[in-house]
Amino acid sequence: MKKYSVALLLAMAVGLAACSSDQADTKDDDEAAKDPVTTDSEETDDAEEEDHVNRTPDMDFDLGGKTIKVVSWWDMEIEDSSPDNIARIENLEELKEKHNFEIEYVAIDYGEYQQRVTASLLAGEPIGDIVRLGKTYTVPTIVEQDLLWPIDEYTENENAFNQAVTNDLYTYDGRGYGFTEDKSNLVQGIFYNRTLMNELGMKSLQEYVDEDTWDWDTFIATIKEANVDRNNDGNIDTWGLANQSVLERALASNNTSLTVDDQQNLEDPATVEALEFLSKIATEELARPTEGGDWTEPGQFFREGNVLMYGGALWELGGFQDDMPEYDLGFVPFPKGPSATDYYSYEGLFQALTIPKSVDNPEQLLYIWEKINDIDSIYDYPGQQSYETLFTDEADIENAKMVAENMLVLDHFTFENLEYYEFEAEILDGTSVSTVIEMYKSNFQAAIDEVYKK
C-alpha cells in the first residue's frame, strides 16, 4: 500500500505540473481519477486477504435452537482470559443469535474418556456433535468404520484452523479427519537448572544451541561433566540427566519413528541410531539411577535441585517453577541426532477435534467454528501468551518457538499389542540393539497388521 500511495502521489504531482494553466479542471480530474483508483486498490487488497486465508463465504442457516455439544476431557468453554478470547466470545454470541443455536461444553474424565466416546460412536449415538478423539484409537480404527466425517474441505481458513493438523497430522487415506483452531504445537525439549550449571562452572547450554553444536555427542559430554561427587564421599551426588529413558525424544530428535503408517520401522538407519543412543545412556549408567519410582520419578529428581537436565514438555514447567523458586530454570531443544538437520518436538498421544458421521450438516458446524476463531489476533506468533508468561529469558522463548515449528507425531501407541515398554526395557537392561531389533521386528509388524486388518 505504501508503494502504491507513493506512486499515486508522484503521478498526481506530474499531472498538476503539466496542467498548471487550468488548475480548477485539473483538480476536478484528479479527484475524479483518485477516488476509483483508491477504491479499486482497497478492494484488491481485501480480495487478496480473503484469498490468502481462504475464508468460507457467509452462510445463512437456522439450527432451530439446537444445542451443539462440544466434548473433551477438559472444559473447552472459552474464558475471557485474553483479548483474543474476548473476540472469540463476541463472535460466538453473534453467531448464536444469527443461526439460532446454543452451545454446551461437556468434560469427561480422561480415565474413562476413550471407552465412553468410542462406545457412543459404535452405537451410532455420539456423545457430542464435536468430539475430541485421540489419534491412536481413531486412525485407522474408527475412521475405517466410516464413523467420522472427513472435514478437510471445510477447514481451509488459515486464520481459524491449524492446517498441519488437518492436512498432515490427523489424516487417513488422503483425507483429514481432525481439526483445531489452536495453531501452537506441543513444546518438548530439555529443561535445565541454570543455577546448578553456574555452580558447576559449566558452559551454558544456550551457547551450544547458538553455535549449532547442541547434538547427541555434546549432550553425552554435558551429562558426564555434571555427574560429580561434590561432597567427596565417593558417591555421585549431582547428576546430568534425570530421565533414564529418552527413547521417544531420541526418535523425534533424529527425525524417525518406530512405525510408519502400516509398517514397522526398526531397521531404518535413523531408528537404529536412536536406539544405539538410548543404549549408550543406559549401559554407561549416565542418568540418575531409579529408586523404584513410577513415571513421575524423573520430575521429582529434577525438583531436588541436584540434576542438571530433565527431558519434558512445556506443560510441566509451571509446576517446576512453583516447586523450585530458588532456581533459575532454562529451556533448550532436545539435541539433534546425526540424521536430523533441525530441532524437533513430538507428540506420542496426539489428539484433535472430530465430527461423528451421524451428525448432520458438518459444514455448518465447521462454519461456526471457523467464524468463532477467525479473529485479528493481538499476538505475533502462536503460543506467545504462554511462552511470555512462563519464560523470562528471550533465548528460552526462541527455543520453544523453534521446536514447536517442527513437531512430529509418533504413532506406535496406535497398536495395542505392539510391546513398546517391553522393547524399551530390553535396551535399558543392556541387550544389544541388533538383538532387540531381531527379537521384536516381527512382533511389531504383527501388531500393526492386526489394526490394519492385513
User: What is the typical, i.e. mean, pLDDT?
Assistant: 90
- What topology, given as strand order, has the largest sheet? 2-1-3-13
Number of strands: 14
Instruction: State the separation between the terminal residues, measured CA to CA.
Output: 58 Å
Class of secondary structure makeup: alpha/beta
Key attributes of the depicted protein:
single chain; 454 residues; alpha/beta; 4-stranded mixed beta sheet; 18 helices; 46% helix; disordered N terminus
Give a written overview of the molecule.
- Helix content is 46%, strand content 13%.
- It has helices spanning 2-18, 23-53, 83-99, 110-122, 141-144, 163-169, 194-199, 205-211, 216-226, 247-253, 269-283, 297-303, 317-323, 362-373, 384-390, 394-404, 420-428, 433-452; strands spanning 66-72, 101-107, 130-134, 171-172, 175-176, 188-193, 239-241, 259-260, 263-264, 307-313, 329-332, 345-347, 351-354, 407-409.
- The strands form 5 sheets. A 4-stranded mixed beta sheet has the order 2-1-3-13.
- The protein is globular, with a radius of gyration of 28 Å.
Short description:
The protein is of the alpha/beta class.
Annotate the secondary structure layout.
Elements (H helix, E strand, L loop, with lengths): L1 H17 L4 H31 L12 E7 L10 H17 L1 E7 L2 H13 L7 E5 L6 H4 L18 H7 L1 E2 L2 E2 L11 E6 H6 L5 H7 L4 H11 L12 E3 L5 H7 L5 E2 L2 E2 L4 H15 L13 H7 L3 E7 L3 H7 L5 E4 L12 E3 L3 E4 L7 H12 L10 H7 L3 H11 L2 E3 L10 H9 L4 H20 L2
Parallel strand pairs: 1-2, 1-3, 7-10, 12-14
Antiparallel strand pairs: 3-13, 4-5, 6-10, 6-11, 8-9
